[in-house]
Amino acid sequence: MIYIGICVANPMRAQRDYHEPHRLQIHFSPKDHWMNDPNGMVYYKGSYHLFFQYYPGANVWGPMHWGHAASKDLLHWTELPVALYPDSLGYIFSGSAVADMNNTSGFGKKGNPPLVAIYTNHDPKGEKEGTSTFQNQSIAYSLDEGRSWKKYLDNPVLKNPGIKDFRDPKLSWYGNEKKWIMTLATFDRISFFSSRDLKNWTKESDFGKDAGAHGGVWECPDLFSFNYHGKDIWVLLVSINPGGPHGGSATQYFTGQFNGHVFTPYQTQTRWIDGGTDNYAGVTWSNTGNRKIFLGWMSNWEYAAKVPTENWRSAMTIPRELSIEELKGNFYLRSFPVKELSLISEQKTDLSPDAQKSRSLKGPLKLELDFPSLDNFSIELSNGNNEHCTIGFDTGNNSFFIDRTMSGNANFEKEFAKKISSERISQEKGCDIILIIDNSSVEFFADKGLTAMTAIFFPTEDFDTFKLNIDPKTKVGKYNSTILRSIWK
Ligand code: FRU
Hints:
single chain, mainly beta, Tachylectin-2, Chain A, Jelly Rolls, 2 domains, binds beta-D-fructofuranose
């Protein structure tokens, strides 16, 4: 199958679409309508598949479908027909997909292993009637690279034991025991199940009732491991809504050990994968070998349905490569924009690190900065309407910040216009920074991704200027600004 870029398939569409006010130019968003969580992310036969919570009927949340897009390079996406529609068991809530290479499920044919998706069937009728068993796990399979799906006739494969929030199954292969693990969010904890065939599931254990943040319901988990200097270090991602560090949604993580049955954490205090406001329900692609590539929904349940966009609502973050780092005996996650970003990098625009000089900002940009010795700094994005968003570091509280107090249209939500801070983790003297700026988002990575912060904003006119504010005595090492080409061209 060859994917044809949207503009090649229909040159008129490219002119019409993806140029609405605030439309992200280097981030995936469906052509129209509402999107939330990334789902079913699987790499198969040279394509990254991205399914997503999708309501094709409006630009607010509704009966959930799985939308579908595919990409060869994690940046240019071709939107494909809706993959899964609601059925008699309910809406199609979040879940995951795997390439079942050994045909453990028996859904495949010789020489053609199936893609198997697992998702939560959410029955709105049961919910309305006040039952507690309206979320159940079901599976579907595809023999044509995700283009068409058949639902398993004996769905659901995992029935609800009476827990209202019982959802978002994420599959992984536990090679040591040749079995599948399903990591499931069950209200205030994570439950692990195992299976040999993806159809029959056995409960293994629970984790988390007394660990991490509990200001809201646990959702959208993911479990995977890294080989760190010869040792397997496991990571458990858990999204939580509300209860994030700045209100609303956010994703926490734990590091620890997993033995195929039980997750034993190294730490129980809360750590966030992203210290910003707008990175939720993120999980990783399956079947990517040693690479762990993460994608989140670049919004927040506090205001996702109210943001000032019209025919479309929400985009995904830039795909991020995850890695692990040990600092003083503690393991931390790093997240960093994928190297594929270089595919849309055009010329470097300005190599002089002069401070206080306004530079023009035309469309998406990547800024890279190195400070041999980190001191207060800020980078201000602004427009002629006196609106601005400022990103920087404050030595006073040792925190990075994004200030969107004056960033434009914010009256759709009381709490939107504010400054958010995230404490620096690294204790190094020097610091490297990457900023990815799109029409209505900024993604900030410091210390090779030990701190990541993501925020969206809605200026009444696109920001067209940026300025670096540093003390004249502050030394700047590397300074690059690179124009990024729209992925919709
Ligand atoms: C997370 C979430 C999931 C659920 C889905 C419904 O954002 O609430 O827990 O499966 O969205 O769209």
